[in-house]
Every structure is written in structure tokens, then in C-alpha cells.
Amino acid sequence: MLLTTLYLRTNLTERQLAVLFDISQKQVDRVLHDLLDPLGDLLGSALTDNVSSGSLMAR
Asked: I need a labelling partner for 40 at 20 to 30 A (CA). Which of 4, 7, 23, 34 fits?
């Protein structure tokens, strides 16, 4: 999960993440591929639920 979070927040390349975590670029690709879609589904549904219930506060 940390690798995926860093990828999304820092805009590091897969190659840079591979060096940082001491794994192959193929492993980074596999982790991102396996986690990004479910994470998007989870966060998307949570955001939709918050908006429809009115619990999101305007900033």
C-alpha cells in the first residue's frame, strides 16, 4: 500500500520506486496494477457516499 500511495502522491516513476523499495520494476508494475483499480473503486464509492449523505464539507 505504501508503494501505491507514494506513486500517487509523488509522481515517481516505476523505475524510481523499484530502486527505492529494492524490487524489480516488473514487481512495481504488478503491485500498482493489482491495487490501483480496487483502491479507485473503494475511494470512488466512499466519495459518492459522502456527497450523497451531505457529510462532505465545502472548503
From this structure: 23
Statement: residue 59 has pLDDT above 80 = no
Q: Are 17 and 7 in contact (CB under 8 A)?
A: yes
DSSP secondary structure of 6-59: HHHHH---HHHHHHHHTS-HHHHHHHHHHHHHHHHHHHHHHHHHHHHHT-PPP-
Contact status, residue 25 vs residue 18, Cβ threshold 8 Å: yes
- Residue pointed to by grid coordinates 449523505: 53
> Rounded to two decimals, what is the model's pTM?
0.67
